[in-house]
């Protein structure tokens, strides 16, 4: 699918040096947008004055908000206040800065963690407010969910147009592979790869293996973000996913196969499982963006493993 309408457009990307941000900036550059993606040292979204100054000086027509404080279940359990506070602050500062600078369109990327714990599968956007998120990541999910309310409020009061996207769990090259903060795919991949290289016969994994998830390759998500940046002015939520639901046990076997780890996968039920099931209904994104995911989980994992193996020992640590 092509992205039209951004050539020559000034696009400000928060978090442009991060995991999803790298991929989004690559897509935007490829369609000849003028991309401004400052580092945190250049523009700190947690600091209102710094955020306002950076957006004002950049004079963008479109702002894509990707900056976030994120992590896996363990990180969310250790830092619930940090994740709630920082994601709320960044979102408020970005909306204020965009409105004051006269930005025409803001794209906010939310999270599947914003959905209620027991959302009927497949998740539909209309269920977003039907309950409280799963407890282990609720502060993060609530903060990101609140940004949808903010985006709507700024549209109603100030005419600030934009889009609100809810991607499934992302994975791919440049992901966070630190076992203290990583999400499930990079954590499993690293454990299996390191066990294979070291000749170990067992890999221990969190939980029971029974929960399900849906995974979206980062480059597929980046294309959806660029499409939203090009044409969406209505912040009604849009799910981004593949439609494929997979259990943690099946995922672990697939990652073991992809890395070549032939040992035993052992589950630790003393560790939390997180939300019981996750899978998204994505007809809104197909209808409004003309978007659908194109990378299978098998292909995406193979690319991610190849990228990970190409990193130096320092970066892999």
Write a brief structural summary.
It contains eleven helices and twelve strands. It has 317 residues and is an alpha/beta fold.
Task: Kindly describe this structure.
With 317 residues, the chain is an alpha/beta fold. The protein has a domain at 10-172 and 216-244 and 278-294: 3-Layer(aba) Sandwich (Rossmann fold). Helix content is 43%, strand content 15%. The chain contains eleven helices and twelve strands. The protein has helices spanning 19-30, 48-58, 73-78, 80-101, 138-158, 184-198, 218-231, 248-259, 283-289, 297-309, 313-316, and strands at 10-14, 34-36, 62-65, 105-109, 161-167, 169-171, 202-206, 212-213, 215-217, 238-240, 246-247, 264-268. The strands form four sheets. Strands 2-1-3-4-5-10 form a six-stranded parallel beta sheet, with helices on both faces. Strands 6-9 form a two-stranded parallel ribbon. Helix 5 (138-158) links the parallel strand 4 (105-109) and strand 5 (161-167). Helix 4 (80-101) runs parallel beside helix 5 and helix 6 crosses helix 8. The longest helix is centred in the first third of the chain and has 22 residues, at 80-101. The two termini are 36 Å apart. The model has no long low-confidence stretch (mean pLDDT 95).
Overall geometry: globular
User: How many E-type strands?
Assistant: 12
SSE run: EHEHEHHEHEEHEEEHEEHEHHH
Strand content: 5-15%
Question: Mind telling me which CATH architecture of the domain at 10-172 and 216-244 and 278-294 this is?
Answer: 3-Layer(aba) Sandwich
Structural class: alpha/beta
What oligomeric state do the depicted chains represent?
single chain
State the helical fraction: 40-55%
In CATH's first tier, which class of the domain at 10-172 and 216-244 and 278-294 applies? Answer: Alpha Beta
Q: Low-confidence parts, pLDDT < 50 over ≥5 residues?
A: none
Question: What do we call the CATH homologous superfamily of the domain at 10-172 and 216-244 and 278-294?
Answer: NAD(P)-binding Rossmann-like Domain
Order of the strands making up the biggest sheet: 2-1-3-4-5-10
Q: Quote the average pLDDT.
A: 95
Q: What can be said about the biggest beta sheet?
A: 6 strands, parallel
Distance between the termini: 36 Å
Number of helices: 11
């Amino acid at each position: 699918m092509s992205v039209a309408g951004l050539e020559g457009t000034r696009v400000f990307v928060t978090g442009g040096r991060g995991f999803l941000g790298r991929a989004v900036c690559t897509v935007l550059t490829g369609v000849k947008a003028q991309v401004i993606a400052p580092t945190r040292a250049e523009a700190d979204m947690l600091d209102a004055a710094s955020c306002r100054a950076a957006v004002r000086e950049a004079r963008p027509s479109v702002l894509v908000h990707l900056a976030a404080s994120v992590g896996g279940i363990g990180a969310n359990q250790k830092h619930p206040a940090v994740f709630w506070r920082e994601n709320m602050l960044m979102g408020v500062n970005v909306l204020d800065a965009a409105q004051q600078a006269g930005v025409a369109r803001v794209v906010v990327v939310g999270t599947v963690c914003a959905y209620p714990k027991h959302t009927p599968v497949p998740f539909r956007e209309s269920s977003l407010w039907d309950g409280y998120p799963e407890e282990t990541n609720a502060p993060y999910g609530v903060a990101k969910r609140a940004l949808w309310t903010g985006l709507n409020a700024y549209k109603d009061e100030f005419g600030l147009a934009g889009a609100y996207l809810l991607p499934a769990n992302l994975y791919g090259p440049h992901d966070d592979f630190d076992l203290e903060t990583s999400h499930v795919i990079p954590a499993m991949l690293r454990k299996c790869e390191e066990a294979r290289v070291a000749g170990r016969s067992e890999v221990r994994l969190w939980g029971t293996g029974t929960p399900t998830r849906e995974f979206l390759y980062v480059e597929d998500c980046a294309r959806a973000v660029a499409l939203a940046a090009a044409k969406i002015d209505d912040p009604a939520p849009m799910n981004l996913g593949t439609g494929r639901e997979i259990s943690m046990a099946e995922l672990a076997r697939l990652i073991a196969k992809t890395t070549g780890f032939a040992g035993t996968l052992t589950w630790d039920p003393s560790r939390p499982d997180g939300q019981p099931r996750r899978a998204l209904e994505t007809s809104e994104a197909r209808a409004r963006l003309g978007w659908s995911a194109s990378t299978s989980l098998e292909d995406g994992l193979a690319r991610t493993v190849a990228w990970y193996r190409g990193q130096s020992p320092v970066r892999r640590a």
